[in-house]
Amino acid sequence: MKGLAMLEIGEIGWIEKERPTYGPRDAIVKPLALAPCTSDVHTVWEGAIGERHDLILGHEALGVVDEVGSEVRDFKPGDRVIVPAITPDWETEAAQRGYPSQTGGPLGGWKFSNFKDGVFGEFFHVNLADYNLAHLPEGMSLEAGVMLPDMLSTGFMGAENAKIEFGASVAVLGIGPVGLSAIAGAKLRGAGRIFAVGTRPAAVNVAKEYGATDIINYKEGDTAEQIRNKTGGAGVDAVIIAGGGPDILMDAIRAARPGSVISNINYFGQGMGDEDTIPLPRVAWGFGMADKNIMTGLCPGGRVRMERLAEVVMHGRMDPSLMATHVFKGFDKLEEALLLMKEKPRDLIKPVVIVEQ
Ligand code: NAD
Ligand code: ZN
């Protein structure tokens, strides 16, 4: 079978691989719709998780079940499914402690395109199918559905971890598809004022649609200062970080008030050494004592998460398809879509590849 792979750091290409094998509780799935992620860009072009050779990329997919193991109960060949980006081993100790995304070590629930072939192949393997697949609801568009495995799950987690109370003020730094999903999540969690920090006009429009009340242009002034000026000097109750470079925590902590949560969903790329660090503003952080608490998390995966996100969409709470700005038809278009995600033209929010209808 054919797949779009990371050949080595900085290089992608199409490769031939054996079709994956599967165990009694697993499934083999064919892609129906796929989306490249900014994380694929960090992985390939920044070497953010280290070297990988001939690893098939991709972790955002809708699919059609092709084969199932003998013990799979709820899925059969031909079923249309949502495939979460994160497919934990649900019996493990980390899952039982409530951290399924971290099974088998930090980020261990992230298998596709991390340490196992991803979803950008003609077929891909899903472990524990009954726990890691969800049925694609009748009537959900592929453009909307393909945002669930990662964009909605991660963005909403950003809002969940931010512990937003009714009427709370929230700033979202970075309004790509992850930050936009976080804005929608913050609104659904009851935020009052929502500051969207970004510049791209297409993203700004969707940010407003999803619930942003104020747009902050970080290129025209200091982000934290602009937010503090608009909040009577106080800062916000929660900051969700969904973009920016290694020093973005400086903006976040300076924009936050005491008693806040800084909820990071950003993937800090580049470098694999213990000496790689990211700065915090010592004074604005109250010398480490200002009750400005940093939360982190990897996208939640699994079946129940996908089913719940599908409920949000199917009952009209938000429309994720607004983020699908560039829609390609055909598996062969994957490379173009991934390169577009790398280039990030100004009118791009998220490219989507519809493999079949
Ligand atoms: P994106 O690149 O489309 O969006 C980020 C935006 O932030 C860009 O538009 C960029 O111009 C902007 N930005 C840069 N510097 C900024 C600054 N100082 N202030 C405000 N905005 C700034 O990316 P995305 O696809 O939305 O993903 C966002 C991040 O989330 C990426 O790092 C991605 O790898 C990560 N991610 C994490 C998880 C997770 O499980 N935690 C899952 C998916 C993606
Ligand atoms: Zn991703």
Mind sketching the topology for me?
Layout: E1 2-8, E2 11-16, E3 27-34, H1 38-45, E4 55-56, E5 61-68, E6 80-83, H2 93-96, E7 124-126, H3 129-132, E8 134-135, H4 142-145, H5 148-161, E9 170-173, H6 177-188, E10 194-197, H7 201-210, E11 214-216, H8 223-230, E12 236-241, H9 248-255, E13 256-264, E14 292-296, H10 303-314, E15 324-329, H11 334-343, E16 350-354
Parallel strand pairs: 9-10, 9-12, 10-11, 12-13, 13-14, 15-16
Antiparallel strand pairs: 1-2, 1-4, 3-5, 3-7, 3-16, 5-6, 6-8
Helix pairs in contact: 5-6, 5-10, 6-7, 8-9
Distance linking N and C termini: 21 Å
By DSSP, the count of extended strands is 16
> Which ligands accompany this protein?
nicotinamide-adenine-dinucleotide, zinc ion
Count of the domains: 2
CATH class of the largest domain: Alpha Beta
For the record, what is the CATH homologous superfamily label of the largest domain? Medium-chain alcohol dehydrogenases, catalytic domain
Topology-level CATH name of the largest domain: Quinone Oxidoreductase, Chain A, domain 1
Number of helices: 11
Taken in chain order, the helices and strands follow as EEEHEEEHEHEHHEHEHEHEHEEHEHE
Overall mean pLDDT stands at 97
**Structural Rg:** 20 Å
Q: Tell me the fraction of residues in β-strands, as a range.
A: 15-25%
Can you describe this structure?
It is built from eleven helices and 16 strands. It has 357 residues and is of the alpha/beta class. The chain folds into two domains: 2-146 and 319-354, Medium-chain alcohol dehydrogenases, catalytic domain (Quinone Oxidoreductase, Chain A, domain 1, Alpha-Beta Complex); 152-296, NAD(P)-binding Rossmann-like Domain (Rossmann fold, 3-Layer(aba) Sandwich), CATH 3.40.50.720. β15, α11 (334-343) and β16 form a beta-alpha-beta unit. α5 packs across α6 (177-188) and α8 (223-230) runs parallel beside α9. The longest helix is centred in the middle third of the chain and has 14 residues, at 148-161. The radius of gyration is 20 Å and the shape is globular. The two termini are 21 Å apart. The model has no long low-confidence stretch (mean pLDDT 97). The chain binds nicotinamide-adenine-dinucleotide and zinc ion. Keywords: Metal-binding, Zinc. One of its GO terms (molecular function) is anion binding.
